[in-house]
């Protein structure tokens, strides 16, 4: 069994940027993104690019949610990003509306995490999200919650 010092040396030698890229591109159904403190995309996987209707990541770099989503949807995403960066804590498995157009009931499940520099200072936010499949979930606890939320929205 390696000593903890060996593990630390190993981890210090890892190319984290390359590993993050490779792991995020393995996510088939989940979109992965990373943003700087100003909310500009600095990294996205293929699925996230597809959600933004872009051919590849280079088209998204430096852009913000406002470049891709409605004003309300972009504001919701930005609010969550800012909350994570202010608190330094994560948001895990949250359900949120993600309407594609007026009357759309699309939902996503997302998690967001603070991105810290080597000194521990929060410098951005990273996250994953996936489309919430309502049909599969209707007979589960989350499906019951979804139906209740929809009823409240309709009232």
Could you describe the 3D structure shown?
The protein has six helices and five strands. The chain has a five-stranded antiparallel beta sheet with strand order 2-1-5-4-3, sandwiched between helices.
Keywords:
155 residues, single chain, globular, 24% strand, alpha+beta, Beta-Lactamase, five-stranded antiparallel β-sheet
Query: What percent strand?
Result: 15-25%
Distance between the termini: 60 Å
Fraction of residues in helix: 25-40%
* Overall domain count: 1
| CATH architecture descriptor text | 2-Layer Sandwich
CATH H-level superfamily title: PAS domain
Q: What is the gyration radius calculated from CA atoms?
A: 18 Å
Largest sheet: 5 strands, antiparallel
Q: How many E-type strands? A: 5
> Order of SSEs, N→C?
HHEEHHEEEHH
Helix-strand makeup class: alpha+beta
Extract low-pLDDT stretches: none
Helix count, DSSP H or I runs of 4 or more residues = 6
CATH class: Alpha Beta
The overall average pLDDT, rounded, is 85
Compact summary:
The protein contains six helices and five strands, in the order ααββααβββαα. The chain is 39% helix and 24% strand.
Layout of helices and strands, plus pairs?
Blueprint lengths: L3 H9 L3 H10 L5 E6 L4 E4 L1 H6 L19 H17 L3 E7 L9 E10 L5 E10 L2 H4 L3 H14 L1
Antiparallel strand pairs: 1-2, 1-5, 3-4, 4-5
